[in-house]
Specification:
The protein has 249 residues and is mainly alpha-helical. The protein has 10 helices and 4 strands; from the N terminus they run H-H-H-E-E-H-H-H-H-H-E-E-H-H.
């Protein structure tokens, strides 16, 4: 007797959304456990990387040169660029602040489906690798980011579908948390590095565009929140609505 053919169906939006909420739970609970922050250290490191890359790529976009990127073991970092003057300095300063929300939103949206999650991880691994060759210039940054890229690449190519989606969502959430982690910094006029008092990114914007730093911090905060809410809607709410419409009442 012939066996009935196996019918392969895509996971429902509810099943996919479960992976997203598990990633949210991990991001909230793990840091509060003993050694939890160490467990999520590679993801926090990516948050620093995307922030500094935002500065550097913004410099390139306005005609400057992205010369050097350093990432430190305390999750600090700096991006050094040249050839950026006038109003373009404000663009470079804003790039690092809104970059995590842009990247996090894109990863959440494109990493929310089985057919694209692997590509998201592969692109991230490639982007990290290219940054190592082009701009990363300190030993810790090379070793740490190299280890992350070397881990992402095989998962992107051979990892189970659920693992790819979960990992993509976890990275996207961590990018978004990198934005939230800079809120205090955005609403600060100055900060201290190596014993020197330096202008914050929002004060750099204010130096060029006149209005006070807290105004630009508020603008970037609103824009980032809008981006993240839009990404959440596109990734999880819109497919659910479409699924309900397809099945009918």
């Amino acid at each position: 007797m012939d066996q009935a053919p196996t019918i392969i169906t895509d996971p429902t939006s509810d099943e996919l959304a479960t992976l997203f909420w598990v990633a949210v739970a991990v991001s909230i609970v793990i840091p509060r456990l003993p050694f939890g922050r160490r467990i999520l250290f590679p993801f926090a490191l990516l948050g620093t990387w995307v922030h500094e890359m935002g500065h550097g790529l913004a410099a390139v976009a306005v005609g400057g040169r992205f010369k050097r990127l350093e990432i430190y073991s305390n999750l600090g970092g700096q991006a050094l660029s040249t050839g950026v003057r006038g109003v373009r300095r404000a663009v470079v300063a804003a790039g690092g602040l809104i970059g995590p929300a842009l990247a996090g939103g894109a990863v959440i949206v494109f990493g929310s489906r089985a057919r694209t999650a692997g590509w998201v991880l592969a692109v991230l691994a490639l982007a990290i690798g290219l940054s190592l060759i082009a701009v990363v210039r300190n030993l810790f940054g090379w070793l740490a980011l190299g280890a992350v890229a070397a881990t992402l690449a095989p998962i992107a190519l051979y990892g189970p579908e659920g693992v790819r989606i979960f990992l993509a969502q976890l990275i996207g959430i961590q990018f978004c948390l990198a934005f939230w982690g800079t809120l205090d910094y955005m609403f600060t006029k100055h900060f201290v590095r190596d014993g020197r008092i330096l202008d914050s990114d929002t004060q750099e914007i204010a130096n060029v565009l006149v209005l006070p730093y807290w105004f630009w911090a508020a603008v970037i905060t609103v824009a980032s929140v809008a981006l993240l809410l839009g990404a959440f809607y596109l990734a999880w709410m819109a497919p659910a609505v479409a699924e309900v419409g397809a099945t009918g009442p």
